[in-house]
């Protein structure tokens, strides 16, 4: 059994595996549209987006930083012709169900599983099926699309039991850049740039 990682599983594989391969899946795109209330944020009401309100900015800043709210992590959205790079992990033979159970718990915040075809970066390795965790739009933690500036602001301010939401974003961007320098994930790298600009403004 192989599992495909496209988010924190790329840089935080805290489970046993037998082998791993860099590669991609098709007809999907990676988006920060899934809410995180158990890892990179906490349950709570989102503050009003700065880009859609007439309230004074100093007041909005107080709301955003003082009130707990969900973080944003990645899920995949169907996108014909799209491509998402990541890492496929082969679970240890004889322990597949045990390891999968721990992954099910780790991804319990609104994710379901499906099977897709994985294309290894190494062209000498044939494509094969992998298990994929995906947060669909009907799960309770799904936040959906929003202006990039609002998503960046939410990531900038969110934190949860697993750490700050900014760490998640930066680790993912650095890992994708390191593993697949040719991958131009505009959504991911645009958010990285916006959040880094906010850090520099502090």
Structure description:
Mean pLDDT is 84; it is low at 50-66. With 202 residues, this protein is α+β, with helices and mostly antiparallel strands. 33% of the residues lie in helices and 32% in strands. Helix 5 (165-179) packs across helix 6 (186-201). It has a 5-stranded mixed β-barrel. It has helices spanning 8-11, 57-66, 96-106, 148-157, 165-179, 186-201; strands at residues 2-5, 19-36, 71-90, 111-120, 128-135, 159-160, 163-164.
Q: What order do the SSEs take from the amino end to the carboxyl end, as H and E?
A: EHEHEHEEHEEHH
Secondary structure class reads alpha+beta
Please provide the count of β strands.
7
Taking pLDDT < 50 over at least 5 consecutive residues as the criterion, the unreliable ranges are 50-66
Share in β-strands? 25-35%
User: So how many helices?
Assistant: 6
Net shape: globular
Write down the overall mean pLDDT. 84
Largest sheet: 5 strands, mixed, barrel
Q: Helical percent range?
A: 25-40%
Distance N to C terminus? 46 Å
Over all CA atoms, what is the radius of gyration?
Answer: 17 Å
């Amino acid at each position: 059994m192989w599992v495909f990682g496209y988010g924190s599983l790329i840089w935080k594989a805290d489970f046993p595996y037998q082998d791993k391969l860099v590669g991609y899946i098709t007809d999907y795109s990676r988006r920060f549209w899934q809410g995180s209330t158990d890892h990179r944020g906490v349950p709570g009401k989102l503050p009003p987006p700065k880009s859609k309100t007439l309230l004074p900015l100093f007041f909005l800043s107080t709301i955003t930083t003082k009130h707990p709210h969900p973080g944003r992590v990645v899920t995949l959205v169907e996108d014909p012709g799209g491509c998402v790079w990541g890492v496929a992990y082969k679970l240890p033979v004889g322990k597949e169900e045990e390891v999968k159970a721990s992954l099910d718990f780790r991804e319990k915040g609104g994710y379901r599983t499906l099977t897709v075809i994985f294309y290894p970066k190494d062209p000498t390795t044939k494509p094969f099926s992998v298990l994929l965790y995906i947060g669909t739009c009907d799960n309770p933690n799904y936040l959906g699309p929003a202006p990039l500036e609002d998503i960046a602001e939410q990531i900038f301010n969110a934190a949860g039991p697993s750490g700050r939401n900014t760490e998640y974003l930066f680790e993912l961007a650095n890992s994708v850049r390191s593993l697949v320098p040719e991958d131009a994930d505009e959504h991911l790298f645009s958010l990285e740039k916006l959040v880094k600009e906010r850090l520099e403004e502090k």
